[in-house]
Amino acid sequence: MDLNIVNIGAFAVLIIVYITVRKLLKRFADFTENIGNSVYHEEEIKTLEAKIIVLEEKINNKP
């Protein structure tokens, strides 16, 4: 009878560990996704677009 209780307890612990690992991996995936979509990239794109406009104006204003 004691063996069944130990097996049930071990199974419950495995389920808890599985759920915990899944939640941690989901949080990690969300975190890395947010890094990829950060504001830094938007600011860099705006800066590069401004540089492109300046260079186009320089090309068009050549005598």
Give structural notes:
- The chain is mainly alpha-helical.
- The chain is 90% helix and 0% strand.
- It has helices spanning 2-36, 39-60.
- The longest helix has 35 residues, at 2-36.
- It is rod-shaped.
- The termini are far apart.
- It comes from Chryseobacterium gambrini.
Describe the structure concisely.
Helices cover 90% and strands 0% of the residues. By secondary structure, the chain is mostly helical.
Question: Key features?
Answer:
63 residues, mainly alpha, 90% helix, rod-shaped
Regions with little confidence, pLDDT below 50 for 5+ residues:
none
Strand content: under 5%
Q: Helix-strand pattern, N to C? A: HH
Calculate the mean pLDDT score and round it.
88
Protein name: BhlA holin family protein
Transmembrane segments: 6-25
Keywords: Membrane, Transmembrane, Transmembrane helix
